[in-house]
């Protein structure tokens, strides 16, 4: 700091007595504070009076807030859905004893011999596909680090048909232009909603093998989803139905308050 030359005032305000200067500045600061408070209160009141929107069983958000959240999410989704590949590993690194987690939709009566994959192409138009037909399509293997939101991860080896190959083979291109894909177990007790971009990611597979063997019941036999750009919760075991839509399909864990996107 340099001293001001004694004969040169700093600026014209320096002619105002110091106590007046302080009063003036405090007045401006306080006025600004009041204005900001009023703006914040108005914003809050607008939001508070806005309609409540139920997005799941428990997650209730006011409409403008929900819209802002959706927009933010959409922004990040577009930013990250650019076909970045998830890291893969050599087969030898894959776990021999694969962790089993959660069995919602797997506990009831189920006859694997009667199983078919049902694609809702349009209202009233269901395409049913057998496991044999799926196994006749090009097979894709994937060894990656599977991550569960509960905090564990494990390198696992899966194989099946790429979801994008499946879409191309069954000419579901029109359906895949829709924004979302929904999947559910035969008893409809577990269900997930996915953004179609993530479903069409080159590492997303409809898996029927684990460690070069047919899927075990506890891992979702005969067919499960492996979607490495998402947490485990989205990797639905025992897929029965697949539906395309432009509105968000119901999602079991999103209804419990988990992030709908659940991306990595
Ligand atoms: N049908 C069904 N699929 C499911 C679940 C479930 O409870 N039911 N749990 C999910 C969760 S939270 C995880 S971490 C993975 C676990 O798959 P794994 O048991 O093969 O390790 O499956 C997912 N898919
Ligand atoms: Mo999980």
UniProtKB/TrEMBL annotation:
It comes from Mucilaginibacter paludis DSM 18603. It comes from the Bacteria. Residues 111-253 form the Oxidoreductase molybdopterin-binding domain. SUPFAM superfamilies: Oxidoreductase molybdopterin-binding domain (SSF56524). The chain crosses the membrane at residues 27-47. Pfam families: Oxidored_molyb. Keywords: Membrane, Transmembrane, Transmembrane helix. Gene3D superfamilies: Oxidoreductase, molybdopterin-binding domain. The lineage of its organism: Bacteria, Pseudomonadati, Bacteroidota, Sphingobacteriia, Sphingobacteriales. This is Oxidoreductase molybdopterin binding. The keyword Cell wall biogenesis/degradation does not apply.
